[in-house]
Amino acid sequence: MTTLTVQYFAILREQRGLAQEKLSTAATTPAALYEELRARHGFTLPADRVRAAVNDEFVSATATLRDGDRVVFIPPVAGG
Amino acid sequence: MTTLTVQYFAILREQRGLAQEKLSTAATTPAALYEELRARHGFTLPADRVRAAVNDEFVSATATLRDGDRVVFIPPVAGG
Amino acid sequence: MPFRLSPNPIDSGALQRSLADVRAGACVTFEGWVRNRNEGQPVFALDYEAYSLLAEKEGARIIAEACEKFSVNSAECIHRTGHLALGELAVWVGVTAEHRGAAFDACRYIIDEAKARVPIWKKEHYASGATAWINCATRGDHAGEKRT
Amino acid sequence: MPFRLSPNPIDSGALQRSLADVRAGACVTFEGWVRNRNEGQPVFALDYEAYSLLAEKEGARIIAEACEKFSVNSAECIHRTGHLALGELAVWVGVTAEHRGAAFDACRYIIDEAKARVPIWKKEHYASGATAWINCATRGDHAGEKRT
Fold it and tell me: Within a domain: residue B37?
């Protein structure tokens, strides 16, 4: 199990009902973690429309998560 | 012979030494008139780099000049 | 900083004056304004939410790419966050260059890439009272992909 | 008037504010500034001379063409005449549109066509004291075709 901080923005923040949480998980990749959280919280965005960032850098969905990482799932952006 | 008003701008105004003149000419087209004036005043621009306007509209170099027309020879433009 | 987020209204006049440069012959600016309708629906207001740390990094990368690809003298981008009313300035991009081609190309590159890559999200408030996170609709929602 | 000549300094901030429009999502502006060098020669100041009647007609035609080719809400162009110092604003183009692609394309179309077609001439004053009418050099002169 790794202990992570997950931050939520925009539609994910609203669907989760909070902006940040600490959690322990057996997931070792962003993809696995997103599926776990999506099942638990009913996120409407499918995994293929969400990017991941770890410690404020974009990472691939199959990157390895490490204890203490701060993970952000990034819904489709819409600046401007 | 037709009697015309010729207006000069920019390099042609400077080379002619005035901005406007009335003149009588045997030239019946802007092309012929420009060659006549060029020979008389030593304009440096060759005819193929000068456009013509008559009564404030662009015309072809072979348009017919009529008595009372106001003719402008337009050096290469350089706005902006 | 060439890319910034601002929770306060953007003073585009001051930004453009700050680009003044006698070595530049061209200045191109893009302003994104809050429009009163999107995809046919009357829009009442907007919220922009940003993942600030990554937005600023990715924005700075985009500006650096533009400066590498095109011969520009300077380039800046500022994006609003928070609640915006109709007509408000949401994003400003300003580019100076010796020649206009580079200024146009760089300005467009920056706004195109920023819209596609910078983690900022837009929530539209409709006259009907409904809201929607743009580009986040899923099957069953009525709102599709949007472009400004 | 969508195309104007101005013997006085151009207030670009006021011009841009005059384009405010809640139906527009994008505003692109181009500013042409007096640059301190051209083709490697130090420039000291400029004079712009216009054939006003035809310049205004041709400028209005260019704006009308841009509005026909691209989906724009409004488009304006103002060009200075007279004596300009370094850094001064020589020409301003502003375009609003629902979407940014049309605003960029129309703004660029207007400045490209204006530079090629509107009867306005530029005389550069060099630090050396020499002057040249741009684009009017003939064999034997040192100055060639110029672009901003």
Answer: yes
